[in-house]
Amino acid sequence: MNEKNRPESQARVLHRLRVTYSKLEAGRFLSHLDLCNLMGRAIRRIDLPVAFSEGFTPRPRLAFGPPLPLFVEGENEQVDIDLTAKLDPAEIIHRLNDTLVEGVRTLEASYVDPRSPSITASIDRAHYVVTGREVGICFPQTRLDQVLASPSIVIEKTSKGIKKAVEIRPSIFSLLEIDRGFRAVLSAAPSRTLNIFDLLTVLDPGFTIQEGFRYRVVRSMMTSQGT
Amino acid sequence: MIERIQCSIFLKGWEGTVEKSVSTRIDLEPFLYRVERPARYLGKELNSIHKNPADKVRVGLCFPDTYEVGQSHLGLKILYHLLNERDWVVCERVYAPWLDMEEVLRNSDTPLMTLESWTPVRELDLLGFSLPYEMLYSGVLNTLELAQIPLQRQERGERDPIVIAGGPCCFNPAPLESFIDVFVLGEAEESIVELAEVSRERSLSRGERIEAMGKIAGCYLGGQTVVESHADGTIRALIDSSGNPAKPVVKRVVADLDCSYFPTRQIVPSIPIVHDRGQIEIQRGCQWGCRFCQSGLIYRKQREKSLATLVRQAEEVVRHTGYEELGLASLNAVDHSQIHELIDRLNLCFAGKNVAIGLPSLRMDTFSVGLATALQQVKKTQLTLAPEAGSQRLRDAINKNLTEEQILATVRAALDVGWRDLKLYFMIGLPTETDEDLLEMARLLREIRGLARTYKGRPLGLSCSMSPFVAKPHTPFQWAGRFSNEELSHKIDVIRRSVGRNVATLKWRDLELSRLEGVFSRGDQRLARVLMKAHELGCKFDGWTECFDAAKWATAFEMEGIDPSFYSDRERGEHEVFPWEMVSAGVERNFLWREYVRSRDRIITPNCTIDGACSACGLSGHNMGC
Known about the structure:
The structure holds two protein chains of two kinds.
Chain A: H1 8-11, E1 15-23, H2 32-45, E2 62-64, E3 73-83, H3 89-99, E4 104-112, H4 119-122, E5 125-132, H5 141-149, E6 154-159, E7 162-167, E8 172-178, E9 181-187, H6 196-203, E10 215-223
Parallel strand pairs in A: 3-10
Antiparallel strand pairs in A: 1-3, 1-4, 2-3, 5-9, 5-10, 6-7, 8-9
Chain B: H1 7-17, H2 29-32, E1 57-63, H3 67-70, H4 74-84, E2 89-95, H5 99-107, E3 126-130, H6 137-146, E4 162-166, E5 182-184, H7 191-199, H8 206-214, E6 219-221, E7 226-229, E8 235-239, E9 249-250, E10 278-281, E11 283-284, H9 294-298, E12 303-304, H10 307-321, E13 325-329, H11 339-349, E14 356-358, H12 369-376, E15 383-388, H13 392-397, H14 404-416, E16 421-428, H15 435-453, E17 461-468, H16 485-499, E18 505-508, H17 511-521, H18 527-536, H19 550-559, H20 565-568, E19 583-584, H21 589-600, H22 608-611
Parallel strand pairs in B: 1-2, 1-3, 3-4, 4-5, 9-19, 10-13, 13-14, 15-16, 16-17, 17-18
Antiparallel strand pairs in B: 5-6, 7-8, 11-12
Helix pairs in contact in B: 6-18, 7-8, 10-11, 11-12, 14-15, 15-16, 18-19
């Protein structure tokens, strides 16, 4: 769109607050869309001067990082909130935490340049920690190294009822054994995102999401190749 | 004051202070990986109330359908918070688990749990079902079974909860009498607290408590009435326990709605639900007297809340919930004497916050351009209008008090301010309906389509939904017959043929389902057997197209040797005793009969609150604010 034709409200300077939050425990049962809705409502409850999208159903201008899959906890997730007034980030965090649903907590916030890249554009790797809830679960490093040594790993995915073979090896960056589980660094680049549960089916054949409670799955942070 | 304890802290404290026999928490989390939408079962939504149950009366309020449907119900929201305001009560919610969760529960022999604390429903003191429509009956039985509570009232033991039921369906308790201990008639804001108080009397046995509940005004005990029948299955008399003709139990009403309790710290579900919005109740009751409408008669007399109360409650609801939409609940919003002022005030109040105001029900005749415009300032959605019947003759017969000029003027007003999506709601199969009435309805739809052509902009989206008429107890049409499903199919054909393509999208409700609703609506105590059989055959979620199984229901009727048309289709004689006459909505049978006769003569009975002429419905004899 031609810059001159933009409505004035969009062209005006906004304050972009980048908020880090966690979605733990009960929060893993909420979908990404649920999170978007409840964040928008929390913002309205505390009367935050948020910018709204244009159109007949204006929505608070929120831009989330890559969605967390259902059943995965997140320790350091991010969302950008566009504000029309610059308020103290610490105060905002405090007020949000007073009103957020159990399982979702904001951790820190700071203003970023609205012209800087979006959260999604600034990260490409997701770090996961998978631990068994039962004793006896373990992923020996030798097994993890086997996976890393494979030149190719193809899994079958069903999308919209159509089965498709997907090469996932290039999306796995590292696998490390820990007590009762493992750490994984996986691709979070748009075309190469690997769902952690798909990796689990490779490492634990016979695993299905119905038995998902066996593992606690946490996305501990998101990084870019450079960091 | 409401205790609000963070769940994690609460659980720690609870294990330490509560005896095991009081509540056994079951960990649902492993199950949540095996079901669709696990957040349905979490129970940790914003503003949900978590209390330590020690030494408290434990009440469960159940809507026997899914979380998304049940959580939308305003009546239960009111009672949930009202009970929890008392420090001696803990009230939790119970919904029907969806099929996948039901399977998980049954396979692991896990009893149904309350939403908040994940403790077995069978450990409650009181379990209350809300029954706004008959298609929930199979859900009541399934819920009891999943909760591992004996289905038959008489088989329950000392430790089982006392099972109560409220809502419009209780105005005919007969089909459920074998399963429900106490029916609560009318508005339950006061009676529910009185019932909880009786449950507080720990020295009383279960039977004694039920007996005490039967003495509470507006409460009817299952099995309180003995039915004497004629050979043809109709009723000779309803007899009470002392052998006398049963004296009707009369409904309760809230005398002062403006001062009545209303929760503004409403629960905000974490997942989308059917009515996903904050709600305020602007008015209760409706005085127009449509002859098919049960709500209009059982919620008499019409009462409204003051502007000041409503603005305060609206502001509080939005502040406590953060909802982007606020619904103004009532049977007919435009009857509120200050509806325009209210909308202006709310628009002012929420300016810049992008809060949409929704009016769920609008009557066409008094709906004004001003109101439409005021609402449109925030958000423009589909506008639903209910002419109910297509011809003037039939609208007069049902006492709709609505002319075709008024309908067209309303549509014009909506088009003027830019609405491009209209939904029209009609009933088909109304008493005395002929093909001519249906042709009139098709003509009306074409007329509206024609009107829209003169407006610029996006073409009009016009949809027309048709529901087969179902006769309800305590209405003038309680005597009326019902057309057979073959006749109703023919009626739909007539409309489809004559509406023509590109005029309107036609939708209609399942005919078998509406017939079943009709059976239970005017059913008697014998239907308990059919309901039990249908439950055994696996009937549940009858309101869901994907679950409703007409063949199973047909088998249930056949196996019990009961002819459904005896209940749904038969026109009743003037003096026939109805199965529901042991309860009363305060409206006299004489009045209803007069109205039935007037409907056949197409005589309109004016709205007594507008025209001032009393139609002698009988309410004034009951101290119900009339």
